[in-house]
Amino acid sequence: MTTSVDPALPPAEAQPEVIAAAEPVAVTPTATTAAFVAASAGAINQRIAEELGVRERQVAAAVELLDGGATVPFIARYRKEVTGTLDDAQLRTLEERLRYLRDLEERRAAILESIHGQGKLTEELQAQILAADSKARLEDIYLPFKPKRRTKAQIAREAGLEPLADRLIGDPLTDPATEAAGYVDEAKGVATAQAALDGARAILVERFSEDADLIGTLREQVWSRGVLSAKVREGKEEAGAKFKDYFDFSEPLTKLPSHRILAMFRGEKEEVLELSLRPDAEEAEGPTTYEAAIAARFGIADQGRPADRWLRDTVRWAWRTRIMVHLEINLRSRLWQAAEEEAVRVFAANLRDLLLAAPAGNRVTMGLDPGLRTGVKVAVVDGTGKVVDTATIYPHEPRRKWDESIATLAALATKHHVDLIAIGNGTASRETDKLAGDLIKAFPQLGLTKIVVSEAGASVYSASAYASEELPGLDVSLRGAVSIARRLQDPLAELVKIDPRSIGVGQYQHDLSEVKLSRSLDAVVEDCVNGVGVDVNTASAPLLTRVSGIGAGLAENIVLHRDANGPFRSRAALKQVPRLGPKAFEQCAGFLRIPAGDDPLDASGVHPEAYPVVRRIVDATGGDLKSLIGNGSALRRLSPAQFVDEQFGLPTVTDIIAELEKPGRDPRPAFKTAAFADGVETLADLRPGMKLEGVVTNVAAFGAFVDIGVHQDGLVHVSALSKTFVKDPREVVKPGDIVTVKVLDVDIPRKRISLTLRLEDDAEGGGAPRGDRPRGERGGARGQGGGPRSGGGERSGGGERSGGGERGGPRGGDRGQRGGDRAQGGRGGQERRGGGGRDNRSGGGQGGGRPDFGNSAMADALRRAGLDKGLSSGGDSRDSKRR
């Protein structure tokens, strides 16, 4: 058999342990771990600079600011000259890498101290430790010196068998049995020659498995060639049906997407699947390439010498009982870490979309929290979000008071001049959406607009201590309706009241590290809040808490001061708030807005420290501040360079002038509603070739779901998003986008709609949607590229999708845990006007693709994504169960 050995891995020297063979030298460990990390600061900065592609001084400046207590939003916005214009994304990456590399240095210091304490730290070993560039490499080097329980190898050494091991590997001409006979000593526990050989083998196995260079090389080889396999446990087929796709499954490690890794590990955790990691796709006969690499490393070759066979068997034993076991544990951890990082990234991206959804603004809004048995909770809030009325109606099963419910809603809308109706997307959302549609048709003079919004996390808010303080006289069941109404008015201001982990826009979020997830999501919330800015006179304490430099305690102090003394008239007045010192003021002032205050600049994003620059700009124009603000023509004639000084460079001055042109501008998109086509209200109304306007409700790795007003979202497969190759659908669309799509195919029995953004694509001919046609009219929808194979929204691991996720918190009544809400990341609820009731869930059974779904790639992808569940029964199996 031909074997390949990594040429970069040199043979080990003849002596058994290279490091142990050298004499210990007097190497003084660092005085403290903190001092060691501090001494490594330059190397850390240099490495981060190389990774980010920036200069080292930029990194050093940013690190100094972060260590000084500055936040990422503050540094990105107001310290551009200091960091060389590093943006918030670069700073977040820098912050994460800084944390990892400092942890690495702390571990390096601890390892050096441990080995030094054992008296085994040589110059060569210290050099290896200092050169290690990852935690995995450090642990490989440390393995031989790591305190451990007494091993077979250690017992063998204590019995004096190490010379036997050294003799056999050093001189294969030695006969193992003959040599071992000389080591028989019952007093030492070596009763026979075979026992002596077993002890020698244990010593060599440990030596092979603790060779850092060898293990590092083998790890990368297994990573590049290995396969993760899954099979169902006996008798678990029915109970573990949601993992059916993995009952007999294998895929190369390097090709496994994160959602699949998480699903397989979830299946193993629930004792449905058995996972195994194979080092090669195909099982090899005889010695593997990995065994050949071990043999070459230690100069072992089968040349017919007396000890060759024994040594070869020792290599095989080392590989199969120690090294591969160790590598499997290590690589499973590596797989999990990669999948976890991607899942956190997806969660963060979805959360950002939801937080930065277009706000409807100060419009009177009626919130409907749908329910069946317990009724639909109704709350009306005025333009400021104040609750002005509430009610509970029972339009659905079992009471079915439809007309009475419409009359109640009409009366509330008339009394309070309601403009918008926000409908939560939970249980009975379809039916409640139809109720609102009938209300609008029956009372067109009211001018109502209905919008379906994500109610993710509303239950958590309802039961929270803050909700009790904010809405003390309101029943818990009605608080959710208030939250739904307010999140349409201003999604960001309302959603910050909820733990971001409870908003439910993540993939397998309850399997992820709480620390990593919280850190990432908190960063997203912080960036979003500070990017938009906060009105200090109307903001809630939870919203203020997310402002740069303000924590929970300081936020409460601001609210208490505001309640006791009235609205703040200037940013300078913030200094009167207890515990709001100079550092906190520096960090927060630029992000807090005071509309209609004493100074017009206080309503802008210009930091108070830069007001002198504005005064110079005003003097240069010869006018006054109020006439200059918003005067684009005058501001565009200015040269920013003439206002640069020692403190404020060109980037900051340029930002100041831009801010003066549009002071306090909201970076969020304008609130838009899709104009759904008249007369297109059900799947039966659709025809291939129709061009319709719709709202993107969710984005997964395999495509985007679009609401076109027919109770069921259509799927634009990733291959139909653009004429060019699309790696990430988010590069083209995001939740809440208003798009024009063409209908490619409609499958009424399966409630599947195939759409395309490539409007020149040919639709399937034939006029009527499938299900209304005679048998045999099954053409091929073009433009789908064979259907989604990526499975980005794979549901196999317990109902969570890449854009969906497990919902946080109990809801009470007829609610339960609902995975994969349709409007998760859904831009805070864009209008879904037209049509009747819809299934408002991101994975609500929608598909698309080829006409014959039976054995197609589209069907396979939809099945993997969990999107074929409940379609034949109306697409909402959960509602039917609850009835």
UniProtKB/TrEMBL annotation:
Pfam families: HHH_3, HHH_9, S1, Tex_central_region, Tex_N, Tex_YqgF. Residues 689-758 form the S1 motif domain. GO terms for molecular function: mRNA binding; structural constituent of ribosome. The lineage of its organism: Bacteria, Bacillati, Actinomycetota, Actinomycetes, Micromonosporales. One of its GO terms (biological process) is translation. Residues 781-807, 842-851 have a biased composition (Gly residues). This is S1 motif domain-containing protein. Signal peptide: none annotated. Residues 770-780, 808-821, 829-841 have a biased composition (Basic and acidic residues). Residues 762-883 are annotated as: Disordered. SMART domains: S1 (SM00316), YqgFc (SM00732).
